[in-house]
Design goal:
Layout (H helix, E strand, L loop, with lengths): L5 H12 L2 E2 L3 H5 L2 H13 L3 E6 L2 E6 L1 H10 L1 H4 L16 H19 L20 H4 L13 E4 L18 E4 L3 E6 L9 H18 L6 E8 L3 H7 L19 E5 L5 H8 L1 H12 L4 E2 L9 E2 L5 E4 L5 H10 L5 E6 L3 H8 L3 E6 L1 H8 L4
Length: about 375
């Protein structure tokens, strides 16, 4: 990826996301300490401003910041700072601002872990999709050699004609060896309309078939959330009193929960690399007496005492629901990461023995930089 000054990184992240949540400015800058100093400078120079309204605090670009980016980084921001898009003319309604905050967290999280998020850092997702010169201008080939993956916000692949998916809660698409539609429920259950999300999934699958992106195909979805406490709330959800809140349904055969914490970056890297997922799985299977070869099966196999062993470190929600449903009838051993262990114990109950894997050991084993 291109090397940029921290100042430019923050301005670019504000441009593509529309509004950065105030408590995420430190993440956007790389550290809270540097973020505070940089923020003071950006506000003093008139490039960014704070909006505090209806209890929601966020930072957005001022006209001077937009002009600077369009002069220096037009390829990266032209799509986001042109026309009447939500990122160019940020609305003041609380629900619209919170939607931008959900999307901003994802942009920042992926960028800070090394995933390509800006146009110049990644290939175009659906070449030929944008027929309008005003939309296609500046969308180059990008960097195809990113070692982790690429992320595409909805503005990069949704069209004005996609009326049947206009109410989707999707933030974007994460692409590695396979692709995942990305959502962010933050710290509460998001509103969810299964029909709209199924339409979105169908539309994305159709575009992968039509436009191609190598051999990439849609593997499922990633549901991000503020922290691991959201796992129990999601798995315990019945849709709320009105039935319009998220609950695990059949929209996706596989949907993975990823908390927005630094430790969980190992999950994202595994989702982006089928080769590394399989390498880790094979290593863990070495401790089993009997292995079940289906990587998407419920159990990985059985141990020397005949107990079922489950690999749950990817936090696939359907798998966790089905394991929990078995409860005392089967029990077994569950492998997950250390930051997941407490929440997984609460979700599955006393019949399951949870064994924690240290993410840093996985990084070393797979040859990744931490």
């Amino acid at each position: 990826m291109r090397r940029r000054e921290k100042r430019d990184e923050v301005l670019l992240l504000a441009a593509v996301s529309g509004e950065i949540p105030a408590d995420w400015m430190g993440e956007a800058a790389g550290s809270k300490e540097y973020g505070a100093a940089l923020l003071t400078r950006l506000k003093r120079d008139g490039e960014i401003k704070l909006r505090s309204k209806d209890g929601i605090r966020g930072y957005l670009l001022r006209a001077k910041g937009k002009r600077y980016l369009l002069e220096r980084y037009r390829e990266d921001v032209g799509l986001f700072l042109s026309g009447s898009g939500a990122t160019n003319h940020v609305k003041s309604e609380p629900d619209k601002r919170l939607r931008l905050h959900r999307m901003s967290m994802v942009w920042i999280y992926f960028y800070r872990m090394g995933i390509g998020v800006f146009v110049s850092d990644k290939p175009v997702l659906f070449p030929g999709l944008y027929l309008s010169p005003s939309l296609s201008r500046g969308m180059g080939e990008g960097n195809k050699d990113n070692k982790i993956g690429a992320y595409y916000g909805t503005a990069e692949w949704k069209l004005e004609t996609d009326k049947e998916v206009s109410g989707s809660r999707a933030c974007g698409i994460l692409v590695g060896d396979g692709a995942f539609v990305v959502y962010n429920t933050m710290d509460s259950l998001m509103k969810w309309t299964p029909k709209i999300e199924r339409n979105l999934r169908s539309r994305v699958e159709m575009r992968f078939r039509r436009f191609g992106f190598g051999e990439t195909r849609l593997y499922g979805a990633v549901m991000m959330g503020r922290d691991m406490d959201m796992l129990g709330r999601i798995l315990g959800s019945d849709g709320g009193l009105k039935g319009n809140l998220y609950q695990v349904d059949e929209t996706y055969e596989r949907i993975y929960f990823v908390p927005l914490v630094k430790e969980a970056m190992v999950q994202v890297r595994l989702l982006c690399s089928g080769e590394r997922r399989e390498k880790l799985r094979r290593f863990l299977c070495g401790a089993l007496s009997q292995v079940r070869e289906n990587p998407f099966g419920l159990e990985a196999g059985t141990d020397g005492n005949g107990r079922n062993v489950y690999f749950c470190y990817l936090l696939e929600l359907w798998q966790l629901k089905r394991i929990r449903a078995q409860g005392a009838a089967r029990g077994g051993r569950v492998f997950c990461f250390t930051y997941q262990a407490e929440a997984v114990r609460k979700v599955l109950g006393e019949w399951f023995e949870v064994e924690a894997i240290r993410p840093e050991k996985v990084y070393r084993y797979l040859g990744w930089e931490s």
